[in-house]
Amino acid sequence: MDNISQVIHNCETCAAIKQAKRVKPLWYGGRWLKYRYGEAWQIDYITLPQTRQGKRYVLTMVEATTGWLETYPVPHATARNTILGLEKQVLWRHGTPERIESDNGTHFKNGLINTWAREHGIEWIYHIPYHAPAAGKVERCNGLLKTTLKALGGGTFKNWELNLAKATWMVNTRGSINRAGPAQSEPLHTVDGDKVPVVTHERHLRKNCLD
């Protein structure tokens, strides 16, 4: 354990993530207690430097009861890409949610989204403009994801699309000795009830910092 502690102390990536995660855990909050895992999500877009493949945005989707993050890179923040990202990363992996929260951007608030949500029986809630606490979960996760991507890129967002899957995984397994990360806060299950394997933080550190 002493060796791991020393590695954490010396690792720039670990230091950046440690600084970014000094916020209230994403999965705390009384208003989410009535929901079971996968039933409520907050979503948003973050903007990053355009890649050679034309990708410039990432749809971020945060499960409200655990803080579990899903990501989906796209060239444009549109309603159609929002639906594609939600279907691939949320509905097909975690089941159809009861509630989705977002801001009032045109990529979220439009007829296509309204029709899709109604057809799937999803309640779509729009945050009050300029009321930051309403989007607290996804905003905190956005900051942590961008910090992690920048750390993996050596201080820049270079190769962010190549690093996105790893950065998402690091956000979801960022627990410490004193506090669990989203993947460790409680056992996760698939929509069929099978337990999802969880990678412990110690193993995560050995893989990324000791090699």
TrEMBL record:
<dbReference type="InterPro" id="IPR001584">
    <property type="entry name" value="Integrase_cat-core"/>
</dbReference>
<dbReference type="InterPro" id="IPR036397">
    <property type="entry name" value="RNaseH_sf"/>
</dbReference>
<dbReference type="InterPro" id="IPR012337">
    <property type="entry name" value="RNaseH-like_sf"/>
</dbReference>
<dbReference type="GO" id="GO:0003676">
    <property type="term" value="F:nucleic acid binding"/>
</dbReference>
<dbReference type="GO" id="GO:0015074">
    <property type="term" value="P:DNA integration"/>
</dbReference>
<feature type="domain" description="Integrase catalytic">
    <location>
        <begin position="21"/>
        <end position="195"/>
    </location>
</feature>
<protein>
    <recommendedName>
        <fullName>Integrase catalytic domain-containing protein</fullName>
    </recommendedName>
</protein>
<dbReference type="InterPro" id="IPR050951">
    <property type="entry name" value="Retrovirus_Pol_polyprotein"/>
</dbReference>
<dbReference type="Pfam" id="PF00665">
    <property type="entry name" value="rve"/>
</dbReference>
